[in-house]
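fwd from M.: "can u put these together and see what the complex looks like"

so here's what she sent:
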Amino acid sequence: MKRVVITGLGCVTPIGLNVPEFEDSLFHGRSGIAPFGLFPEAVEESNGLRFNQIASISGFDPDQHLASGVTTATNRTAQYAIVAARQAASQSSLMQHHAPEDIAVILGCSTGGRSSEEAETAKLYYRNARVHPLTVTRTMASAGASHVSIDLGITGPVFTLSTACASATHAIGLAFQMVRSGMATAAITGGHEAPLTWGFLRAWDSIRVVSPTSCRPFSADRDGMTLGEGAAMLTLETLDSALARNATIYGEIVGFGMSADATHITQPQSAGAAAAIRRALADAGAQPEQVGYINAHGTGTQVNDAVEAAAIHETFGPLAPTIPVSSTKGLHGHAMGATGAVEALATVLALRASQLPANVGVTQVDPTLNLDIILDQPRPADPTRDLALSNSLAFGGLNAVLAFRRYAQ
Amino acid sequence: MQELDIERRCIEIIAKSKLLPAEAVTRDKTFDELGIDSLDKINISFEVEEIFSITIPDDALGSLRTVGDVVDGVVRLRQSTSIESAAPTR
């Protein structure tokens, strides 16, 4: 099977509207989580929510990037996807070197064009108003992948997949498998999500897993996650292809593991997560000793962080406390179906810079987890351990883990 | 509302949530015994909040272990001077 490398990066996130901004925020611990004001839909003087912080994107103007017809036809979720994909495609010059029919576009998205759906449904239900004719194409979950293929002229395999919080990780994993096997010569892959609507926030409020204070992964007194949005994209191709055209290589994907807990729709199980981690390592042909960083799913809920820590211990045994771990959700929030891609981007940048991002937001580390949580400042990577894992452990027990390796010429 | 009515209504809500016969749901029963997990507890609390027009704080939710805890909690919240409606108003 072929080696698969990353030749382009792109993102639209609460901590950067492009990769240089994102990287700067990542390594300077600059969080995009902030209080939000009163929603226009709120019927009282307060939002009536238990939480008051989200990780939202500001300063993104679709008209700066897209033709007016495209802006009209798309929800923000697809707009984020198009812009992030363009950044990655442009950086990699992918379209100049690969036939459009040989490129795959595989994106993760779990909520589709939610804001469009809510706005039109509200008008219908409250005023029996007509529904805008573009509602179908704005809201369908596959709109992002379709628009990326249209924008770039890609005619190969193009689809969206949805596995809640693991969507983008599954997407990148499948794209990796397709390029590795030769089904595609290259891929644009990642995730996009723009879910921060009134209905979405109220729904998450009801299930009581959003932090009423702040997102503090792996903290002893952690009390929930912070919701976010955004998009991140990677371009993948074979190592041979990248070397032949002298492309800049940002990193390598070496393994992908998947599993399902098959137990509960919200409660994670460490056995399932551990299985996905082990399968990623096996797929990479790697030994546990080679792992020098884990970008955790680390949502900041009591349950997730404890279960994930248990899974790390189940997989790595006595090595577990020696592997540096951080969750970057304290910076960019939990962007649902896009989160896996944002965290893949963070992991790739970390390996490339040989700097491991700190676990921003932690107050006091939970000692019962017995993990080496990276605190305060980014930590220099161990040059002898050049593998990193990125975990995504989704609602419904769907687990996906990517294994990356620092690429050295 | 009388405390006995509150108990009866709470038992109805809990029994319905897990399709249990009402007579199987008694004050002394723990959620573990009734097969009620944390997601079930959130669902039950949501129903209880709607029916009794109360708000169950997150930390109180975490401390609910038995049917009796739910009943006593509802009685306490209804007696409280700061009763807050949990249901969104239109």
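replying to her w this: The mean pLDDT of chain A is 97.
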